[in-house]
Amino acid sequence: MTADCGRTPDAVVPGAEGPDPEAPTSASACGVSPLPVRALHREAERARGWLESGVWRPDAADAEAAARVLARLTAPLPRRGAAWARARAVDRDRRLQRIWRSAVHHLDAGAVSPPAAALLAAVARAYVPWYGTPNPPPAAAAPRYPVPSGSAAPEGAAAHGAATRDAADRPEAPPTDAGEALLTGLTDVFTALAAPPGAGGRHPAAVPWRTRYAGRFRHYGRPARHVWTADTFRCPGCSNADGPWIVVCDWRRVTLGCPCGVTTDRHGLTFSEVFLVLPDA
Hints:
By secondary structure, the protein is of the alpha+beta class. The protein has helices spanning 26-29, 38-53, 60-73, 85-109, 114-126, 176-181, 183-193, 271-275, and strands at residues 209-213, 218-224, 227-232, 245-249, 254-257, 263-264.
């Protein structure tokens, strides 16, 4: 049977029973890689179980961050006439981009609990194809995360220094249908998380992770509007920049271990700058 390239893939909705989150979707059959949702599926299921059982009772910081993301998840699209089909396509991608930006903002602010940080990071990973779509950061030094194959390059990316990205990373269109397929499941999770906190919040310890990563970590700063800075982290012991690093994270801090034996958490990197470049697992 020929794949229906217009169908919204249902194999990547977090919390959905039945479809395998790693199963092929119509998007993959049509040459568009599925979104990186393994971490999202895992963290959404954990969050759902903790919230329903009362193990996780969100405090004010968690509830506020969840409410901000929830507002992005449920934002209606502007009303457009039939002649505005192209504008509506941009509106859809802009809504997904705002979800990504809101998740990253609250993740990197460092005010939420470890399980909330893990969930926000998973949301940010799933929506990383939209970090620069449709509105790329207006500076050559702005972040360039490794967008999964099948996701679009930012519109006008060449003007912002991304023209050298490999052509395989610059397909024609982002997997917008797949991104929107996540909205219903995420809305349910974030609605529960954004509920008014009870007296004295409590949360379970987030599940820590440890992985090996060969590559560079970049720290991005924004000292002024339309001004970005970018620095590559180097081992304070041997100045190695390429690893392979042993990355350990408990969602309070990230430590990086160098082959020379030096381990440090004084790297200046945010959660997103570490988590979004690691393989989705």
